Amino acid sequence: MDKLKINGGAPLDGEITISGAKNAALPILCAGLLTADTLRLTNVPQLRDVLTTQKLLQGMGVRVMTDNVHEFELTANQVSSLVAPYELVKTMRASILVLGPTLARFGEAQVSLPGGCAIGARPVDQHIKGLQAMGAEIVIEHGYVKARGKLRGARIVTDMVTVTGTENLMMAAVLADGVTTIENAAREPEVFDLAECLNKMGARISGHGTDTITIEGVKSLHGATHAIVPDRIETGTFLCAAAAAQGRVVLRNTRAGIMEAVLDKLREAGAYIEAGDDWISLDMKRRPKAVNLRTLPYPAFPTDMQAQFMTLNTVAEGTGVITETIFENRFMHAPELARMGADIATEGNTAVVRGVEKLSGATVMATDLRASASLVIAGLVAEGETVIDRIYHLDRGYEHIERKLSGIGANIERIS
Ligand SMILES: CC(=O)N[C@H]1[C@@H](OP(=O)(O)OP(=O)(O)OC[C@H]2O[C@@H](n3ccc(=O)[nH]c3=O)[C@H](O)[C@@H]2O)O[C@H](CO)[C@@H](O)[C@@H]1O
Ligand SMILES: C=C(OP(=O)(O)O)C(=O)O
User: Which Enzyme Commission number(s) are on file for it (predicted)?
Assistant: First the structure.
């Protein structure tokens, strides 16, 4: 099993090109199921989760062409299976995103329930409730959600802001008979990106980017070409790395406008940030100042950046209080960071991080995707060698992270 070996303390200075967003690419790949025509996607990140989605879609009979690793052509004109099997769903929760489009187009779908994962229980009751409101008959049997029925427009108010739930329901509603409104909808840029792609395919969606999305159902969708939005979490991760290491970085092919909450916190930590249409630069000339933060749905501070900021706080001046409100078990990086000398006290959904002068390298274990990213940042600033085990989590969501970091001066390599 691959590991990452990092020798901490190398100065970071240089440029990195940001990939397309995992959390936009996965739903948009599933949107390929909504039409018999070809959906052409560019800026698709090269990730394990993308490969898993490709396998899932191919298993259903979707033709997937990838001449260039970042460009995909999906053609769902010979769909032969309406089932998303447990073997794939268990490795990637986003598989639940085939439920809405498959049911909408074929009147039937069976998707394995994803179950809980390391960071929380993550139920899908809101997806089910919304589809039932649209007229689907749903049973849970043998670990699968089995749905059938002709969908009709409905008013749906979700109990909480759910990103995947909003995406699934939006994809279901585009082919439903009549108008659907999703209230308390997620406003994440990745939801917006999916809606934009669906509209290019002939859907009639408005209000995306606000908390009320209106979808006027159409008879069928057609092919389109769409470029995946840049990954704001990958962007934020590299910005945090440069800030923690008191370095400089210029990130290309990214967008400042979709990550203001993160940029504000980095400025509060003492970073000097500039941005243009498709780039962001960060210059950190001092030891970071600790920041307090609370994770919340977009446009507030994202849960997917919580772990990376925890590492920033571990080497900061002062004490930072972090409150995680989205997932009930998303502090698993804290004990690993403590093994590197961090001073973190967690209680419930709050972590109090007292900055220390130095972390020291150690062998640590990645427990989930963003926890892994936080350990990479810790390794970059720690004294001595850090070995990170179980980096398959990292490969789900970061394209060639070791290559990108080596490019700005980090001493990091993948070992077997
Ligand atoms: C609102 C939010 O920040 N969502 C994050 C969530 O999206 P993801 O789509 O995975 O999760 P949701 O947005 O659906 O979940 C938000 C919260 O609602 C709960 N829930 C959700 C659906 C449902 O049917 N029932 C239910 O109880 C979840 O357990 C969670 O506590 O994880 C992703 C991966 O880390 C992040 O990129 C998203 O930013
Ligand atoms: C936890 C994440 O992804 P997933 O929802 O695919 O588990 C993430 O993107 O941080």
Answer: 2.5.1.7
CA distances, 304 to each of 105, 155, 295 (Å)? 32, 30, 9
Q: 3-state class of 404 per DSSP?
A: helix
- Which residue's CA is the nearest one to ligand 2's atom 7? 93
Whether the bond between 299 and the residue before it is cis, its omega within 30 degrees of 0, is yes
Task: Mark whether 30 is an active-site residue.
Answer: no
314 lines ligand 1 (CB under 6 A): no
d(CA 315, CA 341): 10
- Residue pLDDT, tens place only, 107-126: 999 999 987 788 999 999 99
| pLDDT tens profile 134-157 | 999 999 999 999 999 999 999 999
pTM of the model: 0.98
| Nearest of 295, 240, 248, 299 to residue 274 by alpha carbon | 248
Taking 70 as the pLDDT cut, the residues of the chain under it are: none
- Which residue among the candidates 30, 117, 197, 240 is catalytic per the annotation? 117
Torsion of CA 186, 330, 324, 165, to 10 degrees: 10
* Residues contacting residue 198 through CB under 8 Å, at least 6 positions apart: 31, 34, 170, 171, 174, 205, 221
Q: Is 93 in the pocket of ligand 2 (CB under 6 A)?
A: yes
